[in-house]
Amino acid sequence: MNNWRYHFSHNLGTWTAVGLFVLMFTIYISNHEAGLNPAVATTAANKAVLLALVAIAQTLPVLTRGLDLSVGMVFVMANCLASVIVVGTVGEGLLGCVGVLAVGMLAGFINGAIVVWGRLQPIITTLATGAIYYGIALWIRPSPGGDVQTDIADFVTGQAFDVIPMALIVLLIVVLVVWIPYRSSVLGRATYAVGSNEQAAYMSGVPVQRAKLLAYTLAGFFAALGGLILTFNTYSGEASSPIGGTYTLNSIAAVVIGGTSLFGGWGSAIGSIFGAFVLRTIEDLLFVFDLPPLWQPLFQGVVLLVAVSLGAIRVFRIRNRLELFT
Amino acid sequence: MFDPTPLLELKGVSKRYGGIAALTEVDFKAYAGEIHAVLGENGAGKSTLIKIASGVTDATEGEVLVEGKRVNFHSPTDAMRAGVVCVFQELSLLPDMAVADNLSIATPPLRGGLIDAKAQRARAVELLERVGCEDVHPLELVKNLPLSRRQMVEIAKALAKKPKLLILDEATSALTAKDVERIYLIIRELRAEGVGILYVSHRMHEIEALADIATVFRNGRKIETFRKGERSVHEIIQMMIGREVSHHYPAKPPFDANRTPALTVSGLNWGREINDVSFTAGKGEILGLGGLDGQGQRELLLALFGVLKGVSGSVSVEDVPMPLSGPRHAMKAKLPVALIPEDRKVEGLMLPMSVRDNLTLASLSQLRSGFGIDSRREGEAVDRMVQRMQIKAPDLAAPVATLSGGNQQKVVLAKWLMTEPGIILLNDPTRGIDVGTKQELYKLLRSLAAEGRTIIFYSTDYAELIGSCDRVLILYGGRITRELKGDECTEHNIVASSLNVETEAEKAA
Fold first, then answer.
1. Which residue, A210, B93, B413, B426, is the most exposed by fewest CB within 10 angstroms?
2. Are B407 and B437 in contact, with CB atoms under 8 Å apart?
3. Residue A177: left (phi > 0), alpha (psi -120 to 50), or beta?
C-alpha cells in the first residue's frame, strides 16, 4: 500500500462523515426552492458552525478517553458573558472577545486540573463543573437580554466578498491555526497516546498529565468561541439550560458520527465538524420536505445508530469472548 | 572489564510490596560492552530488578548508580534520560497509532516546534530496516500488526532512544526463529558499540548463545554471578531451584494409571497459542499444567471453558462431546465444568457486592423458586459453604472487597463449588495469597479429588505442582512437551522440561 491509502484508511471516519454530509446537503439544496445562494448558505453555516465548535471542544477530552459534559454550559456561559463585555467600540469589543475566550479556557483548565490532579472521573467532574458554569451564567444574566458590539457581530455573521459565509471562514481559520498545529505538536500526539493506552504512554515517557490538561483547556476555548459566535448571531445573551444540555448531547453525537472513538485515541476534530454539519442538515432536510420538525430527534437518533454500528464491526473479529467486555 | 566503573550498579537494594519482600539486599553490577543474563524462576525478583533499573518503581532501600553517579528515577522518562532503556515484556506500544508515531513517541523530530512527519517516517524506515522489518509499513497501525512484528517494533523503539544500557525482558517470547537470529545479531552489534545489555530470558539455549556473564536470582536474592562457561546448565538449574519445599502438602494417593476418563481433549488448536493439544484427565485426578509463564496454559483453560472463539479440535466429557461456545454450555456439561479465574478481582468477583451474593452468583438457577430466589435455601447453602471453606468473613452482607486476598480466593472457589462441578479448572489460584490459606487450599483440592472430581490445576509455582498433582503436563509454545507421572514430578524434571532442555536421563537414552 502506498502512503495515500494509509492516510485514507486512517481518516476513514472523517471521510465517511464528509460523504454523508455532502449527500445530505446536496439533497437539501436540490430540493430548496432558492437553490444554493449566499443567503441560504450563510443561514445554514451560522447555525452549523456553533455546533461544530462545541463538537471540536468535545473531541479533545474524548480523544484522551474522557468526556466533557460541561461544554454546553461553557458555551452558554460564554454567551452570557459576551452579552455583557463585548460592547462599546470595536477595540473594546475585541478586548471583550479575548476576555470571553480566556474565561472559557479557565473553565476548561479547571476541568482538566480536577481530572488530572484530583483523579476524579471526567464524566462526574464535568457534570458538576457544568452545573457551576451554568450557575455563573445565570448570575451574569438572570434574564435574557444584553447587547453585543454590532460591527463585529455583523462582520462575523456576514459574507466575505458577498459570497462565502464568514462563519465558515472563522471555522477554517480555527482549524488551520489551532487544530492542525495541535495535531502535530508533541502534546497533541500525547493526547492520542493517552487515549490509546495510558499505561503504555506513561512507560514511553509521554507527558500524560500535561496532555490531558491541555485537552480540557482547549475544550474550554472552543466551547467559549462557540458561545461568542452565538452572541453575534442573537445580539443577546440567555442563560438557557435546555440550550446547554442540547449542545452537550449533540456534541457527543457529532463526535461519534465524525468517527472519533469514545474509547479514546482515535479520531479527529475535522470529523467532528462534519458530524455536526450532518446533524444540522437533518433539520434542514425536514424543513424542505415539509416534515414536522418534531421528527428531528428521531432522525438524529437513526443517523447516530448507523454511525455507531459502523464502528462496532470489530466485534466480528474477536477471538476471545472476554474481549467483548473490554 | 576494562572500565572499572559499572554502567549500572545496585548497592544493597531491597524492594518490598506491602509486607512482601520482592528483592532483598541485592548488589548487582552491569558493565558497558557486556551481555549480562539475568536468570531465575517466576517470582525470583528479576522483574523487580528491571523495574527499579528502568524507573518504573523505586527501591525501598539501597542505592542505584548509573556510571558511578547516584540516581533516583521517578519515571521511565528519567531512566531514559540517563541512558537506561527497557524493552518490556508487556508491550508498551500504542495500538491506535502508526508504527512511525510509536517509534518516535518520546522524542519526535521537530521542525518549527511541530512534529516533522517526513523526518519521522524516514527515521522509522531506517529503524525498521535495522531490525529486519522492511515488510512493516511505517504508517501501518500497531494494532494491525501480528504479535511477533509488534515485539520487533518495540525493540526498534528502544534502539531509537540510543541506549547506553538496554534491558531486554523476555523480548524474544513471541518471535519467530528468523527474528530471534536478527535480534542476536543486533545485540552483538550493540555490544561491539559498547552498549551494556541486560538480558532476561527463560530459554537456556539463548543464554548459552548470547551471554558473557550471568547472574542467578532466587526468592528475591542474588545467588551468584559467573562468567560464561564457568557453570553447566545443570548447575544453573540447581541454583535456580535450590530451596527446600517449604509447604506441607496433603498425602498423595499412589499413582493410578487406570482412572475412568472424565475429560478427553483431542487435537485442540487456537491460533498460535494452542497447538495440537490432546490429553485425558481421569476422575479423582489432580492434573497439573506446568511450564513457563505464558506457554498457552491460560488459553487452554479458557478454551475448555468455552471462552475462546474459533477453537478447533474436540472436547468430550464422559464421552459426550461438549460444545465450546460459552461458559453456560461448559457449566451444563455432563460433568459440569467450573473455571476458577486467574484475576479474581476482574473475572472472579463482583467486589462491591456482598459475600453472600458473590457466593450464589453462579448457582442461582438451583436456588430459584418461582420467579424469585429462595432465600431460606440460599442462606443454608451459603452457611454450609462458609463452614466448609472456613471463609473468615465477619459479616456475609459486607462487600467482598473487605476480605483478605486469601479469603477472597476462597469465595471464588466456593462460588464455583456451589454449582457442584465435576471438572474444576484452576488458573494459578494461589498467586498472592498467604501460606496458611495455600495449605488449606491444597487440602481442599485433595478432598475434592477424593470425591471423584477432576481437577486441572495450572500453577506458576513448581513446588505446588509437585506437592499436589498426580500428573503434570508441561507446555512449551502451546504444545504439551512432556508428561510427568507420579514420582517423575520432581523439581529438576519440571524446570528442565519447562526450559525445554533435555534431562540427563534422556541424554543418556
1. A210
2. yes
3. alpha
Q: Residue B294: what pLDDT?
A: 77
C-alpha B361: how far from its chain's center?
28
- Concatenated DSSP letters of B116-156: -HHHHHHHHHHHHHHTT-TTS-TTSBGGGS-HHHHHHHHHH
Out of B75, B98, B308, closest to residue A321 by CB: B308
Q: What is the dihedral of CA B125, B126, B131, B133, to 10 degrees?
A: 20
- Three-state SS string over B39-89 comes to ECCCCCCHHHHHHHHCCCCCCCEEEEEECCEEECCCCHHHHHHCCEEEECC
pLDDT one-digit tens code per residue, A171-196:
999 999 999 999 889 899 999 999 98
Tens digits of residue pLDDT in B16-70: 876 677 888 889 989 989 999 998 776 678 888 888 888 888 888 888 988 888 8
Counting every residue written for chain A, the total comes to 326
Would you call B419 helix, strand, or coil by DSSP? coil
Helical axes A3-10 vs A12-30, angle rounded to 10°: 70
Is B75 in the A-facing interface, judged by CB distances under 8 Å?
A: yes
H-helix or E-strand containing B484? strand B479-485
**Mapping DSSP to helix (H, G, I), strand (E, B) and coil, where does residue B448 land?**
helix
CB-based burial of residue B480 (10 Å sphere; 0-12 exposed, 13-18 middle, 19+ buried)?
buried
Question: What values do phi and psi take at B310, rounded to 5?
Answer: 75, 35
Placement of cell 423458586 in the chain: B369
**Pair B184, B209: CB distance under 8 Å:** yes
State the pLDDT at residue A135. 95
CA distance B355 to B382: 9
Sign of CA dihedral B413, B419, B424, B426: negative
- Mapped onto helix, strand or coil, the DSSP state of residue B92 is coil
Q: Residues B171, B155: contact at Cβ < 8 Å?
A: yes
Inform me whether the pLDDT recorded for A124 exceeds 80: yes
Closest of B502, B492, B458, B501 to residue B201, by C-alpha: B501
B96/A196 Cβ within 8 A = yes
Question: Exposed, middle or buried: residue B361 (CB in 10 Å: 0-12, 13-18, 19+)?
Answer: middle
Q: Is the Cβ pair B97, A205 closer than 8 Å?
A: no
- pLDDT (tens digit per residue) in B170-187: 777 667 777 788 888 888
> Per-residue pLDDT tens for A15-50?
888 988 999 889 988 888 777 788 888 888 888 999
- Average pLDDT in the A72-77 region? 96
- The cell 560464561 sits on which residue? B228
Looking at the complex, report in whole angstroms how far the Cα of residue A194 sits from the nearest Cα belonging to chain B.
Answer: 9
Question: Grid coordinates standing for B132?
Answer: 529486519
Place of cell 508441561: B474
ipTM over 0.85: no
Tell the residue number behind the cell numbers 459565509, with chain if given. A165
Q: How many CB atoms lie within 10 A of CB B336?
A: 17
Q: Do B308 and A3 touch (CB under 8 A)?
A: no
pLDDT band at B245 (very low <50, low <70, confident <90, very high): very low
C-alpha closest to that of A272 among A61, A127, A111, A108: A61
Contact: A319, B95; criterion CB under 8 Å: no
Contacts of A203 in chain B (CB under 8 A): 56, 76, 88, 92
What is chain B's alpha carbon radius of gyration, rounded to the nearest angstrom? Answer: 25
Helix (H/G/I), strand (E/B), else coil: B333? coil
User: Which chain B residues have a beta carbon less than 8 Å from that of A197?
Assistant: 93-95
C-alpha cell at A229: 459566535
For residues B409 and B440, is the Cβ–Cβ distance under 8 A?
no
Cα–Cα distance for residue pair B77/A126, rounded to 1 Å: 31
